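Async update (no meeting this week)

Hi team, since we skipped the sync, here's where things stand on the single-chain job. The sequence we agreed to prioritize is pasted below, unchanged from the tracker. I ran it this morning and attached the output directly underneath so nobody has to dig for it. Comments welcome in thread, and please keep replies under the output.
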Amino acid sequence: MTTSALPAQAEAQGIPTRLDGLDRLLRLGTGRLDQNLLDETAVLLDRAGQRLRLSGEHTVVTLAGGTGSGKSSLFNAICGLELSPTGVRRPMTSKAHACVWGLDGAGPLLDWLDVDKRHRYARASALDLERADSTLQGLVLIDLPDHDSIQALHRAEVDRFVTIADLLVWVVDPQKYADAALHRNYIVPFAQHAGVTLIVLNQVDRLQPGEADDCVADLRRLLEAEGLADPRIVTTSAVSEDGVRGFRDVLVDTVAARQARSQRLAADLGNLAERFVDLRGDTDPPTHVDDDRRAALVQALTDAAGAPAVAEAMESAYELRAADFIGWPVTALVTRLRSDPLRRMRLTELRDELRGAFTGPIGAQQGDVDNALQGVTDGVTAGLPAPWARSVRAAARTHATELPEALGGSLKDALPTFNQVPRWWWLVKTWQYFLVLVSILGVAWIGVLVAYGVLEVADAPDSLFDEPGLIPYVAILTVSTLGMGLLTSSACRNLVALSSAKHGARMEAAMRERIEHLAQEKVLDPVTTELETYARFRKALTQLQTP
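Output:
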């Protein structure tokens, strides 16, 4: 439905703009608001669109009332013909009867109203041209079955027409104008439609002089008490001369104004808008999660994923891995020869895992993630209407089941590969093994000197003892080599400890950065989107409420 296709009367009352706002409310509220309210909204949008596409030159007026109120007699009196059956038998009218003044464009409208073609009458036909009333040109007057009929189909027919008529005319009589069924089922629910509602007090010819005014006053008091502001009431008598003049004048003015259709749609929109008021909220909503709660969420997810523990474990793995390269081989050999308490406790597998690589299962428990998501929306939902608060909280949990695995993936992406080690580790390892080789040669040299020079196990070559006192020098060289190996190992361990601390800090920062990105994508962005949707909903509601 385009604005350009709408009649000037509808545009003058802002109907297209309000319908556009209602359409936006329907789209934005789908899946968030009460489904019954959304269904009613969709029905009104469809009905309004169809009515605006049909003839704007015709005004649909329905005559509705209870049994014996005389609405069919009134219908015939206005038409000037006996078109609708009257009599003592009840109910007399079982189907809607329509009389049209001016047929051009009325056909599709009557089809939409679903009036049986057998009960359509025209007052502007060639046979009736002289008696046709041009002042009512454009009127579609419909006589409905009794609203209190014992036939359910009759009541359903009335219920259908009261939702689509441009002008609602309720015909009552002096005896039953306070009928509870009429007021409970129709007057009160349509109290906001006072501008398109007319009350006709019929059969006033049965009253004594002065009693008609008393009945009108009492009827007005009753209608105002039920919320019908400034009700329009006319009195009629289908059997008296000029008894329907007042009613006819109202119909003439209504048809001439060509405003009833737009006024009816405006009343429908206003009535439905009242249903949305409680969903608007009193204060402007936040547009995003504040920085404090954002930081708290990231910290909670970081703790849930165990990032600090992973970083600490990686520091240990880094140091253990480094020990294989920078450690003094002699010390490592001695350690292996000694009794290992970890081996007795059967914990060597853990040490081997840390030494080789950190490849254990990484992730977060669902309960920890749920706790982290618990408070992220508390601040932003405080002032929201209940349905929207639930919607925002649900948005925060949209990816709740995906987060544990996603957190584990974020941590794994931040872990380094253990297949690559610093080059200086290889240099130190080469240096250490060179020192070990020198130490072994020194020890072997000393052994030879002792065996030949002290124990005299055999005749030693003359060149072996060319320099007297050679054993102490060789011993000093060997001890110095061993000490140099220990000193190198100790110094490198200190360097590795400093490096591992920085390495762990960088790794934790990298994991935190990935978790922050994950929190933004999986939690904060959906919440922001939902808050933006609510803000658009408020604007659409303002558009609907503004005539």
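Quick observations from my side:
The radius of gyration is 47 Å.
The first helix runs from residue 8 to 12.
Reply here if anything looks off.
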